[in-house]
Amino acid sequence: MKLVIFDMDGLLFDTEWPSFQALKEAVERRGFTFTIENYKQLIGLAHGKSMEVMQQMYGGKLPYEEIMIDYRKLFKEILAKDGVGIKRGAIKLLDALDQRGMKKCIASSSARETIASYLKLTGLCDRFDFYISGNEVKKGKPHPDIFLEACKIAGEPVESALVLEDSLNGLKAACAAEIRCILVPDLIEPTEEMKEKAYKIIEDLEKVIEVLE
């Protein structure tokens, strides 16, 4: 194992719940109901796929771009107030990977500027070799493109890589890339499909160290 590929939202940073809160308010301002179950269907998806799924939810009646403008504003306000939380065990895992001399990167469906912002806010800018966003590949998760590109940039074959994810869409992308994936669930309870496809399912990032050993 030479490369560990981290997802970001819900895996490395505790951003899924504030994201849900912001999107719920933005959608309900337009007179639609939005639940946590609706939100779970969007976790891990690239922007274009999220739009497609949300339009399917509401029969094509949703003013998606208007909602996204509100959502981004509301989400920034929440993060400005509460900050960006680092998930439990993340720092200990990064330290352990450094000790082993392993390469580390982030492969996230979020925009590149969002990744950079979170890393700056949490002081983790120098903890990763590189990062790649959903905007930089042809097809986002659940397609394998982003993980295959991460391996290409790192100069490592998929057999030497490990993906860390919290969502089914990210897990599907890892499986499609034929890369082992450890699942660390956040808002989503593990389903039978997740149990079948994941290399391991663990409760926090520190447990990854035990798996590596």
UniProtKB/TrEMBL annotation:
Per the record, the coiled-coil ranges are none
Q: Which Pfam families match?
A: HAD_2
Q: Which SUPFAM superfamilies match?
A: HAD-like
Highest taxon above the source species: Bacteria
What protein am I looking at?
HAD family phosphatase
